[in-house]
Amino acid sequence: MTPRLHIPRPHRRGFLTAAAGLLGVSALGGCDRFAASPTGQRALRAGEDANLFVQRLLLTPASLAKEFPDSEISPWFKPNGTIEPPDRAYKALAAKSFDGFKLRVDGLVERPQDLSLADLRALPARTQTTRHDCVEGWSAIGKWTGVPLAEVLKRAGLKPNARYVVFHCADTMEYAMSGGEDEAEPEKTANPSMETRPEGAENQASDSQAAGAEAPNAEDEASQGTPVRYYESIDLTDAYHPQTILAYDLNGKALPVSNGAPLRLRVERQLGYKQAKYIQRIELTEGLTGIGDGKGGYWEDRGYEWYAGI
Ligand SMILES: Nc1nc2c(c(=O)[nH]1)N[C@H]1C(S)=C(S)[C@@H](COP(=O)(O)O)O[C@H]1N2
Ligand SMILES: [Mo]
């Protein structure tokens, strides 16, 4: 993929536009008509009906992201962003090959879940070989295996007002000073690109390892401020898309730490930064305010588009 110079404008009518986008622009008229109709309104408000609507709408070949033959798998899937979370809790789990890991599913659900990797591997699985496009301008093709997010949501049961799926990740990106004036006026990234990422925030673990030191532990060092961890969010359209999976394997092997072990999101047809790694909690919400800086993701809070359609 060539460097992405024009990122689509935020979609104002999130649900519908996202669905329409997956079908191609020509479907917009139909979608708009559906939304305008009383049935459409009702369907879009009620979670279950909306899910059905979305499934019907999306289960057409045109709506799937391209999948590739094994012969096209990249020999190396470049890790990016955090490649080794510095957080103590994460490191402890990683040291035990994630034995004891539990994915928490909560928020607007009927039955909160705590799922081990064995639980997740026992659920129906999907394997897909897709191309990952980072906003920085590089791509890689990987073969992902995981549980469809829809399966996990089915177990948890959505409450009718659930609209977004928020992925809380284990990796601290930076520390925020509490009570600081900068909270009132967050620094805006003039030209949002990965190059603007502050040095050191990118890979605290290897930086400190290179220096022969223990990685910082957010929990221990209150003086550093509150840890700001990576997070992402998607709407129900993408959550129920058949290619939206919580991946635990990459190219037939357990996901390496650098690529997001033990569990990372694959939400195909969106850019790299939506593919949350190190997922530890999935929260169903009605809106995105009150989470991070309220824009739906760590990079979104720093100027990136929330709907990062490819
Ligand atoms: N938790 C977490 N998820 C993340 C990131 C990160 O820094 N932390 N980086 C994002 C970005 S910008 C990209 S391109 C992909 C990189 O995934 P990879 O390391 O498997 O290549 O992960 C995304 N998900
Ligand atoms: Mo990225």
UniProtKB/TrEMBL annotation:
<dbReference type="InterPro" id="IPR006311">
    <property type="entry name" value="TAT_signal"/>
</dbReference>
<feature type="domain" description="Oxidoreductase molybdopterin-binding">
    <location>
        <begin position="98"/>
        <end position="174"/>
    </location>
</feature>
<dbReference type="InterPro" id="IPR036374">
    <property type="entry name" value="OxRdtase_Mopterin-bd_sf"/>
</dbReference>
<feature type="region of interest" description="Disordered">
    <location>
        <begin position="178"/>
        <end position="225"/>
    </location>
</feature>
<protein>
    <submittedName>
        <fullName>Oxidoreductase molybdopterin binding</fullName>
    </submittedName>
</protein>
<dbReference type="InterPro" id="IPR000572">
    <property type="entry name" value="OxRdtase_Mopterin-bd_dom"/>
</dbReference>
<feature type="domain" description="Oxidoreductase molybdopterin-binding">
    <location>
        <begin position="224"/>
        <end position="286"/>
    </location>
</feature>
<dbReference type="Pfam" id="PF00174">
    <property type="entry name" value="Oxidored_molyb"/>
</dbReference>
